[in-house]
Amino acid sequence: MKTTVRENRLLVVSDVHMGNRLHRTGRAFRDFVQFALDHRYSICINGDGIDLAQLSLSHLVSDLMPSLGLFLRFGENDLRIYYTVGNHDIALEHFLSDVGRMKVVPFITVKSGDQCIRVEHGHMYDNMFLRYPRIYFAFTWIGGLAILIGPRAYNALHRFNHGFVAFSEWVLSGFGLIKSRRPVKRIGGIEGERECFHAGAEATGLRGFDAVVFGHTHFPGSYMLTDGPRYYNTGVWFTNPHCVAIAEGRVWFGPVADLTTKGDPFPMTEDEVVESITGVFPVQHLGTARMSHVDHVAAVSR
Amino acid sequence: MKAFRQHEIESFADGEVIFTEGDTTSEMYVIRTGKVEISKQVGGHSIGLAVLDRGSFFGEMSLLEGLPRSATARAAGATELLVLRPGSLLLQIRRDPTFAFELLQQLSGRIRELNEKLIFRLATAEFGNRLARSAFMMSASAEYKSADERDETTATS
After folding, report:
1. pLDDT, tens digit, for every residue of B131-141?
2. 3-state secondary structure of A69
3. Is residue A193 part of a domain?
4. Which residues in chain A have their CB less than 8 angstroms from residue B102's CB?
5. What is the DSSP letter of B2?
6. Which chain A residues are Cβ-neighbours of B80 within 8 angstroms?
7. Is the dihedral of CA A128, A132, A137, A140 positive or negative?
8. Whose CA is closest to A16, among A270, A216, A278?
9. How do residues A197-208 score in pLDDT, each as one tens digit?
10. What is the largest CA-CA distance in chain A?
11. Is-contact A205 A227, C-beta < 8 A?
12. pLDDT tens digit string along A281-295?
């Protein structure tokens, strides 16, 4: 399993939650995948792509089928699909390997241009998930039941869960078990995101990454970490999905809708498109050595 | 913010020595920027073992085993390193569990590389042995033949 990859062009989204009853992502996700194909981007589904924890098979089929045919075309176009495992699809950890052009990984380090970008779902920094997995999964299971009742029940449970976690952390912080007492509102920080994710991003950023991309929290946003790396969270497809576009070391962050409606933030020239398909620059850009070789071949064939 | 500062970040200029073979320091380093050259003294000569890139780590053997440095590390270009001591290594793993995964991944890669080198050495040594054995057999058989010929000549004379 290779977790360090070189990708010149990559789109990162997270928390698509395909198969969740709460929301239908089929068409929007298909448009996104089509956009990636048209503009020659590999894609990374950064965790919780398929919602195995709150799965409805009929929803999964309607969400996944429109994109499935497009996925197959990634291979034909020499593009890759990375799938990092999240908490709602944690069963996929048993399948960490390359499945054709799809690479199932726990996280990836993307080298693009001179930039080094870390992409992971982020559930490994969730105190509740790490310390009390049974409570966490119980809430996820109850959440699945609430979805059956309706979106309102689910949202109410979600709010309760959020309050419960904040309360637990506050209580436990008294005993020094969890250091974060309350969500810290730092300048440029992401409103609503708990401190543990910030600590996780800081610890990861220390290792020399230029950017750290998480999902999981469902709060999209971006801000600068202590030692200079930038933190991005790509949010969730239930509300306003965001995306990180990486091209030759440049990074763009914004809503997926902007990407598909306003166009490619890093448009490619015709030559670059040819190069990305054939692996070489068009003939007029070849060096003299290569040209003389071509002439020689032509002379021999004559 | 103070908590994150428990980790030290050190900068080295091009060619500056980070640690020398035999040193008893026990820090482990993660390369934040730049490159690091690892070399070892063998028979009075310095042999380059590896050039490590950004994201790689080194010095873990002294940290984990408490033994003197087994090689020399030198900055190749301006280099910035994250310094991890035993306590801060555990803290880093606790805060960033994927670091442990990558640590194992890189160590596994290094063991695989060493195995391949060892197999190559053993195979070439085996080949050398076989070559020597064949040469010996050939020379022995030539001697035997010449002795036979000598015997035959003495017999006929």
Report:
1. 888 888 888 77
2. helix
3. yes
4. 3
5. G
6. 208
7. negative
8. A216
9. 888 999 899 888
10. 86
11. yes
12. 555 544 444 444 444
In total, how many domains does chain B have?
2
A101 pLDDT more than 80: no
Q: What CATH number is associated with residue B85?
A: 2.60.120.10
pLDDT tens digit sequence for A24-73 = 888 899 999 999 999 999 999 999 998 888 888 888 888 888 888 888 88
Q: Does A273 touch chain B (CB under 8 A)?
A: no
Residues A208-259 have pLDDT tens digits of: 899 999 999 888 999 999 888 999 999 999 888 999 999 998 999 999 999 8
Same-domain check for residues B101 and B83: no
Q: Which residues of B touch A (CB under 8 A)?
A: 1, 3-4, 7, 9, 30-33, 54-55, 80, 82, 92, 95-99, 101-102, 105
Residues A244 and A246: their CA atoms lie apart, in Å, by 6
Indicate the pLDDT class of residue B144, thresholds 50, 70 and 90.
confident
Tell me how far apart the alpha carbons of residues A13 and A234 are, in angstroms, rounded to a whole number.
6
SS3 assignment, position B78: strand
Of A109, A124, A202, nearest to B97 by CB-CB distance is A124
Q: How far apart are CA A285 and CA A213, in angstroms?
A: 36
Q: Are residues B76 and B113 in the same domain?
A: no
Tokens at A231, concatenated = 């933190």
Q: What is the 3-state secondary structure (H, E, C) of A161-209?
A: HHHHHHHHHHHHHCCCCCCCCCCCCCCCCCCCCCHHHHHHHHHHHCCCC
- Residue B141's domain comprises 97-157
In whole angstroms, give the CA distance from residue B75 to residue A80. Answer: 35
Residue A176: band (very low, low, confident or very high) from pLDDT cuts 50, 70, 90? low
Residues B88 and B128 reside in one and the same domain? no
Q: Would A228 be classed as within a structural domain?
A: yes
- Residue A65 touches chain B, beta carbons under 8 Å: no
The single residue listed with the structure tokens 């610890």 is A203
Do B122 and B103 share a domain, yes or no? yes
pLDDT at residue B16 is higher than 80:
yes
Give which of A277, A297, A279 is closest to A289, Cα–Cα: A297
Lookup: tokens for A55: 């799965």
What would the mean pLDDT of A129-155 be, rounded to a whole number? 81
Q: What total number of domains does chain A contain?
A: 1
Number of H-type helices and E-type strands within chain A: 9, 13
**Average pLDDT rounded to a whole number, residues B20-45:** 92
CATH number at residue A209: 3.60.21.10
pLDDT of B56 reads 92
Dist CA A283 CA A278 (whole Å): 11
Residues of B in contact with A120 (CB under 8 A): 98
